[in-house]
Amino acid sequence: MQQISNPSRGFSLTEIMVACLALGIMLIPVFMMFSQGSAGTTKNRNDILAQQHASNLLAYATSMNYDDTFLKTGSQEVNEKKVNSSDGTEIDLSISEDIFKRSMEIKEYTFPGFTYAYKLITVSVKWSQTGDKKTENNREIKISGLLNK
């Protein structure tokens, strides 16, 4: 009996399924690497934005007069959109991202027999971001500045 040879023989269904399975197993680490890179980028972006929001508020606070009503001693939330300064101008201190909460603490230091007074301004920005295991990580950045009279 003579065997018929078929030069255009293709792959069997089993071979195709094994190849797809092997390719899928090899691609899983690649997709996990993309996911980790995206999470790291988001974390760095939030860190940079929080630092910038804190720096903006501290720069505004240190540019005010020592006795300005904005610089009253104590702790206050500073999340409102506009602030009226003592000269009547409106300053936009808005934060476009909803995850950030900004607060400012002001302590006044005076020393007996010393002509100068100081205000220590501490700005903190808090936010929470989801971690690798879908858990909340509460994060905070604090920066401080000094204002003298």
Relevant terms:
149 residues; rod-shaped
Question: Could you explain how this protein is built, in words?
Answer:
The chain has one helix at residues 13-62; strands at 74-77, 82-84, 90-92, 101-110, 117-130, 136-148. By secondary structure, it is an alpha+beta fold. The chain has one domain. The longest helix has 50 residues, at 13-62. It is rod-shaped, with a radius of gyration of 30 Å.
Write the layout of secondary structure elements.
Blueprint: H1 13-62, E1 74-77, E2 82-84, E3 90-92, E4 101-110, E5 117-130, E6 136-148
Antiparallel strand pairs: 1-4, 2-3, 4-5, 5-6
Q: How would you sum up this structure in a few lines?
A:
The chain is α+β, with helices and mostly antiparallel strands. Helices cover 34% and strands 32% of the residues.
Rounded Rg:
30 Å
How many strands, what sense, and barrel or not for the largest sheet? 4 strands, antiparallel
Number of strands: 6
Give the averaged pLDDT, no decimals: 85
CA-based shape: rod-shaped
